[in-house]
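Bump. Still looking for GTP-binding protein structure tokens.
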Amino acid sequence: MNKKVILVGHFGVGKTSVVQQFVYSKFSEKYLTTIGVKIDKKLVKFDGYQMTLLIWDIAGETEQNSVSKSYKLGSHGIIYVFDLTRPSTYENLEGQIEYLKTLLPNAPIQILGNKKDLISEEEFNSVKESITLPFKATSAKTGEHVEEAFIDLAKAML
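Sorry for the wait, here they are.
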């Protein structure tokens, strides 16, 4: 079974790095801007199920309503990525998630606070207190919680 997953969020939050870590177990320090959309796929196995994730890495935008709806339509799941080190990427998190839920009401959403490896525990706790929605703290660099996020989303898409 194939499922389309979109990765969305501000530019520079690490969406492409999260995908590279999940699909290829790779991380690069080089920053490459995504133009339009890049599509990868990966077969995941869990609880006796097999699912092919078609992962659409969509170019970053400050506001989700700036991103072409055509990229998002037909999505079965959403991964929203923000940068734990840049408050501007999560200040309007609730509004961004609400917009995505309106656009794709049946698509489960995983929210990832990326770049956990770049902040102290104290800084992380401060960020956690300022965000009301549940999220996973990830690091595309170390791989922390990256695979878990995709597997949890796959389970929610069954």
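Strands lie at 2-8, 37-46, 49-58, 77-83, 109-114, 136-137.

Edit: fixed formatting.
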